[in-house]
Design a protein that fits this description.
It is built from ten helices and no strands. It is mostly helical. Helix 3 crosses helix 4, helix 4 runs antiparallel to helix 5 and helix 9 packs antiparallel against helix 10.
């Protein structure tokens, strides 16, 4: 039993690291110089891509072992080929490895345009839709679920990526407040759209995997209680976002000396809550709403 719990803990940790890594790659590439006045060193993206490859391989190995009940003797070449090519989890991992490998190659050979790296980063992130509950869907319903999951992931990545870049900009020895304040105001508008996308896609995803006609059963399940924790963290993030928009940004704009410590701390706490949400999502992917 202890071994099984340890294996489950490793699987959740790998899933968490994978989500966080891919969201960082896509979010930073999507947001650099767009929603936040900060550049992203391409070497950092290449490092994250290489880390993503390593985590994907480890996660695939852990998932493959779980599929055969932990009996490593069953993981011969034929079984590994089947898992990699015939299961949604394996197909998602294969696409992810190709996208991350191509991303690394592009970053090493060319540093001119961020367009192709951004597309590859988004593809790698989108591949996660085949590794969770959405990967089990078929037909039109399955397509809708995967599409909803992808938009959910992209919106979350933009939120987290922007927070990271704003903190980078504010962390400079002499932060360019004249650039940061307009960026914060733009992000307030972008953030409204992000929250809308997250709520709509979140409802769609839940409707696809849970029986909403039996809310008491959902609430009583481990999945429902973990989902409640995710929602609570999400609303806490919204509270910090509202404080940034209506209190800290105007204060930074009009303050004498432009002291950025307050909004820097608020953004850091908001980012910490976002990382906690990713951890809860990693746990949710291992739970069944019917259990």
């Amino acid at each position: 039993m202890i071994a099984a719990m340890a294996e489950e803990g490793v699987a959740i940790a790998l899933r968490f690291l994978l989500y966080l890594d891919l969201m960082a790659i896509a979010g930073l590439l999507l947001c650099a110089r767009r929603t936040a006045p900060a550049e992203v060193p391409l070497r950092a993206i290449a490092l994250l891509a290489g880390l993503g490859v390593a985590i994907t391989v480890a996660h695939f190995a852990a998932s493959a072992a779980a599929m055969v009940g932990g009996d490593a003797t069953l993981l011969d070449a034929e079984m590994l080929r089947f898992i990699a090519l015939e299961t949604s989890h394996g197909q998602g991992a294969a696409v992810r490895l190709l996208a991350l490998g191509a991303l690394t190659a592009v970053l090493v050979r060319s540093k001119r345009s961020p367009f192709l790296p951004t597309i590859l980063g988004v593809v790698a992130l989108a591949s996660l839709a085949w590794s969770g509950h959405a990967g089990a869907g078929d037909g039109a319903t399955g397509v809708l679920h995967k599409a909803s999951d992808i938009f959910h992931l992209i919106a979350a990545a933009i939120w987290i990526g922007t927070l990271v870049l704003l903190l980078v900009a504010l962390g400079r020895r002499e932060p360019a407040i004249e650039e940061i304040v307009p960026a914060l105001r733009r992000f307030a508008t972008t953030g409204t759209a992000i929250v809308g996308v997250l709520i709509v896609t979140g409802v769609i995803n839940l409707a696809m995997i849970a029986d909403l006609a039996r809310p008491a059963q959902l609430i009583a399940s481990d999945y429902g209680q973990t989902l409640a924790a995710k929602i609570a963290l999400f609303f806490a993030m919204l509270a910090f976002a509202a404080a940034n928009r209506w209190h800290f940004t105007p204060r930074l704009e009009h303050a004498i000396g432009r002291d950025a410590r307050a909004i820097r701390m608020s953004l850091l706490l908001e980012l910490s809550l976002g990382i906690a949400v990713v951890l809860v999502v990693a746990l949710l992917g291992t739970l069944s709403p019917d259990a």
